[in-house]
Amino acid sequence: MSQAHAQVIPGSTQSSQRRKRRQIGDRTIANLFIWPTLILLIVVNVFPLFYSLYLSFTDFSVIANQAPQWLAFDNYEQILTAERSRYWHNFTVTGTYAVLSVGLQMIIGFGLAMLLREKFRGSGLITTLLLIPMMLSPVVVGLFWKLIFDPSKGIFNYLIYTNAAGGTQWLSNSTLALWSIVIVDVWMWSPFVMLLCLSGLSAIPGYLYEAAAIDRASAWFQFRRITLPQVAPLLLIAVLFRTIEAFKAFDLVMGLTGGTPGDATETVAVRLYREAFLGKFKTGESSALAYIVLVIIIAASNLYIRALNRVREG
Amino acid sequence: MLKKAARIVILGTLVLTSIIGVGSVAAGPHARQVDELTILWAEWDPANYLQEIGNRYEEETGIKVNVIQEPWGSFYDRMAAEWAAKGDAYDMVVGDSQWIGQGVTEGHYMDLTDFMVDNGIKDTVTPATLQFYGEYPAGSGAYYAYPTEGDAVGWAYRKDLFEDPDNMAAFEEQYGYPLEIPTTWMQLRDIAEFFTRPDDNLYGVGVYTQIDYDGLTMGYETAMFSWGVDWWGEDYQVIDVVNSDRAVEALEFYKGLYSFAPPGTNNAFYAEMNDVFINGQAAMIMNYFAFFPALINPGVNPFAESTGFFATPEGPYGDRYTSLGGQGLSVINYISDERKQASLDFIEWFASKDVQEQWASIGGYTCNTEVLASAEFLNNTPYNPAFADSMNFVKDFWNIPEFGELLEPVQRNLNAYVVGGEGTAKEALDNTALEQYEILVDAGYIEE
Lengths: 314, 448
Prior knowledge:
Number of helices of chain A: 13
Number of helices of chain B: 19
Order of helices and strands of chain B: HEHEHEHHHEHHHEHHHEEEHHHHHEHH
Strand content of chain A: under 5%
Radius of gyration of chain A: 28 Å
Low-confidence stretches of chain A: 1-8
Distance between the termini of chain B: 77 Å
Structural class of chain A: mainly alpha
Helix content of chain A: over 70%
Low-confidence stretches of chain B: 14-31
Mean pLDDT of chain A: 88
Oligomer: heterodimer
Largest sheet of chain A: none
Mean pLDDT of chain B: 91
Structural class of chain B: alpha/beta
Number of strands of chain B: 9
Distance between the termini of chain A: 82 Å
Largest interface: A-B, 32 and 39 residues
Strand content of chain B: 5-15%
């Protein structure tokens, strides 16, 4: 009896262990990892996304202590059609800024990559130094470039030899202010484009150039027919990333001009901030504006991705 | 098995009930005895001074006072979020004067009228501060805040430049009257022009231009009020008020002053004003009195010994006003009756003359009429006489809940004209008036 009992006990222990092992199976472990992440994602990302979409159709103000009132498309209509809403001005400023900034970054970034393509003594150090600007905080960059642009004590006017009385007022001139932000953005992010282009250039097989050289192809022909098509996919990725960032331009603008003079450099993101906070707290209207920006970014991204696919397909 | 579970449930319920019961019995008398008060204010020196005053209150009464400081940039956001949640995290707030409309109409602030009147507190402060910090709507005789930190736009100047014999002689020769503290805005302009010497990196005057929040508006309205103009007329009318001929004149004048400002002050507020003064670029600056302590500190300002202060001068038509800063102390409506009573007790103690004298002596800007007029207060700092003077002619802008919306077109249009040089003063003010009109119509203050 006791032996039989002794034999049964180990057997039952093994079976219960097996049961436990079954209970914490691969699926359970996977669920244990996935569900907390999913719940976090839903609470922090998905719910706010859909809730803000709902709010964009209401007159909700986060500080008004009143329930949201349904307005249907009034907020969108106000933003896109109201004569005095000035939103189109903000979109124009943002678009101009994006075109100038991204365009110059592509030219300068690609140019730098071409220069650094061939290894030479100190090229590694130079590449590292060139990458420093993109590692800095945009707020810090904005603040120290504000000092650099200072008309009386900044170094920028000294470097470009302007003699205007009291120095050229880069940040308070309606035309120059946007260019000032573009200059800083190009300084900061051209190295990023350079980095992408460098990786593209280093991946071009050497035999293509060798074959071209045998055919006595000119340097321009090699650039146009070999270098550019090979780097194009990465250039397009750079354009995509930088355009999306340009549409979100906020910290650099706030640090440099705050949207001034008047609203000459007020980008959509700065306007969004002003509508959503700064004593206004128009949560509904600003949510609508945010969704319009989101749609524009998704549309632009789709266009770029299509172009990218066309380039890849040859 | 079931019996065991039922026993556990019954036992647990009994334990829980007894804990809650004992807790309730213990909390009953205890809740009536508030032993801690929490006040929200912005993060700056006056809040430290209020904490000192609070420590004295604790010594006297045993009730601890905590002054929670929030950076200026997020001060309003934090309070607004608390209001929206009807939260009771704070017993009191030292809120900006323009918040009062929202605080009252949305029910966030406790009505202090009976308390202020019955205890005679309303008669202890200057009428202007009571009106702008405490009363809503204007002229109603209903009070929601005790004027705590008075503040106004004043002026700092370099005495070493003003009293230099060569400068004095040259100025008198050029303008036909002696170089002294300006008593009119026109004199201020002449002095600013006189000291504008770009070759010496010296400029006449620093003025507010900042576009975010209310910087430029505070500067412009200091001139505008002195030109006899207000932000609205009767029944909230803004057309032909905001853009009246005198307003246009005042704005053109303000832009003229900006032409004598140090370069780089295109988006400048209180910090930048002190900066250009301390680095020797400005002969005069406008700034809130609350930021003048730094200017008499030799460790901060190399010109501290030769820095003088004066109140805003008179306008061309005999009006004299200056822009109001500062805050009033309000009781949050969402706290318990016991905490409300404890808060009122604190305000009553704080408003007494003795405590207001202490408040002023450690650096607080009292609004108490008697303390402001006392020799002790006037001799306490070089800027106190100008401050006491200013407290008699301060004026504020809108304090209705839509103040933020009304502010934005002023900041944008005026910045474009003053700083960016776009259009004319008339155009800037016409656009402002029209935009403000639409806001007021939408909000139901004006019938279209």
